[in-house]
Amino acid sequence: MKMSVIGCGYLGAVHAAAMASLGHEVVGIDVDPAKIESLAAGKAPFYEPGLPELLTENHETGQLRFSTDVSEVKGYGIHFIGVGTPQRRDGAGADLTYVDAAVEGLLPHLSPGDLVVGKSTVPVGTAERLATLIEPTGAELAWNPEFLREGFAVKDTIEPDRLVYGVRSQRAVDLLDEVYAQAMSHDTPRIVTDYATAELVKTAANAFLATKISFINAMAEIAESTGADVTQLADAIGHDVRIGRKFLNAGVGFGGGCLPKDIRAFAARAEEIGRGESVAFLKEVDAINLRRRQRVIDLVKEVLGGSAYQRRVTVLGLAFKPDSDDIRDSPALDVAVQLHGLGADVVAWDPQAVDNARAAHPQLAFASGIDEALEGAEAVVLATEWPQFRDLDPASTAAQVASPVVIDGRNVLDPEAWRAAGWTYRGLGRP
Ligand code: UDX
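Structure tokens predicted for UDP-glucose 6-dehydrogenase:
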């Protein structure tokens, strides 16, 4: 099939490359010339495992090309919309500027029978509104949310754990089935529904995941006041298959380009439709999440005798999670910035996210490697659980720092081993 993908960020670029590798002929469109130049040269403009290989392979076969010129979508029957829906500047609600611009840009190039497929995360009601713009061209709209996780984006796109089609016709279902034929195994669940449900599936899934993380982080707060261990608590309740152990890792909290802004946009949308009370708990979810960052900062001050001012603090990790260079709403970066704001002498390092972090916060000091980051540290904060941090050897690391004090913001180190090697160990929600 011939298809276009409008928006080549974390979602769109992976989707375009994955569709090409499933055998389709794909053109990816983005307004950012630098991004398009990089993708057209077969280079990923951000860190995502597996993406560079797909780009090179599809670039060579000619299945995949990129352009800044939206008129090149003409003659491609399927058009995916994968642009961002960031948080609005006023803080409330999703900014739909890019979605609206993408649809407006597409309209003159649509032909009767084309299928426009929304993948961006949008407030419920958006698809209905966009359909009124698209249908007069003779094209049709489907809403097909994307559940990919950064770091696993290629796998999640090529082997989705479920497909959701928000549609108005059987023809749209048939076309989407054809699009995903190579991605679907015989037992991939596929939910065919209306626009509103499809939009809400994505919003509800992210709200649930965020709530699960904040639930365990709330238990961490209780554990901190009672001497209990939240990691053992999570293991124990996670054995109940109705609960499950995944997304019960207490720590410095969730971040990234999805969960934080999606729960805020959901709360804002619920207010708009007069249902604010239904998801009022999401404000609590957000508040608990942000309190965890403060807890890490308080622990740093505590281990340093009451103040971080002019004390040498190492922050390991800047990305919002491992296997990503994404610093959007990153708890790790926020902790580094806040400590710097308190006058601490912060040196930060991350295997992939230093360039992005430096561009956003040039005031911070960045090491060029883990050894340089650790040298002279009076306190080390593990803020993103990259494997190279989890695997640090407590004995040799103790020899590198000025004072062996570690705050394990992700609860991934073995407290006994680190204490045995002479470290003062502080986790979150752990005695
Ligand atoms: C998320 C959803 O998982 C994905 O389905 C959706 O399409 C987009 O949003 P992503 O933002 O890539 O994906 O990251 P995810 O792996 O969900 O992690 C989100 C944040 O939660 C990270 O900051 C992570 O560190 C944190 N987290 C996750 C925890 O703090 N504890 C956990 O137990 C799990």
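The pocket of uridine-5'-diphosphate-xylopyranose is lined by residues 147-150, 206, 209, 213, 247-249, 251, 253-256, 258-259, 320-321 (CB under 6 Å).
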